[in-house]
Amino acid sequence: MAGREAGVAGPKAVMVGRDVVVVGVSGSLASLAALRAGAEQARRGGRVLVAVLAWEPPEGEGLYLRHPDPAWARHWYAEARGRLDRAFDEVFGGAPRGVVAERRVVRGRAGRVLCEVAAHPDALLVIGARPRWHAARTHRYVHAHAACAVLTAPAPARPRGMRRTLRRMTAEDFALANQ
């Protein structure tokens, strides 16, 4: 595998034009909401939806560069690619209807990658935000450096008490639910 297929391409290798809606996808509920909102914006404006999942080696780029392992990089690229594909399956059940969509997996920090992919001033960048979010690193970076308009899509609110209920559940509770 070479270039982007091996997951080693930088963000500059995937820059896009002006008639696009770029969506940051991570697999979180907030990013799924952003993917849905981005598809709707692309459909309304006759634009191309570009879903971007940025990834880095789990040990960080610094350590990876000291001990590079292409097989390890391919493994994490494949994991990121699978996460992006699962996001499309969860939101649309596959490919979105009525919109041209591209899926891109890019190695790099999420904020920097998203800003570089959506570098054209006429592009639209869509990111997700958790309820009561405290400006995460990616959000701060995007809002400070984006050259285009940024739309923040809120994640769906969780029902009250759900977190407490889930914390109290055991493995047996989940096993009983699947029977």
Short description:
It is built from 7 helices and 5 strands, in the order βαβααβαβαβαα. With 179 residues, the chain is an alpha/beta fold. It has a 5-stranded parallel beta sheet, with helices on both faces.
What does this structure look like?
The chain has 179 residues and is of the alpha/beta class. It contains 7 helices and 5 strands, in the order E-H-E-H-H-E-H-E-H-E-H-H. A 5-stranded parallel β-sheet has the order 3-2-1-4-5, sandwiched between helices. Strand 1 (20-24), helix 1 and strand 2 (48-55) form a beta-alpha-beta unit. Helix 1 crosses helix 3 and helix 4 packs parallel to helix 5 (137-145). The longest helix has 23 residues, at 70-92. The protein starts with 19 loop residues before the first strand and ends with a helix. The model is unreliable at 1-15 (pLDDT under 50).
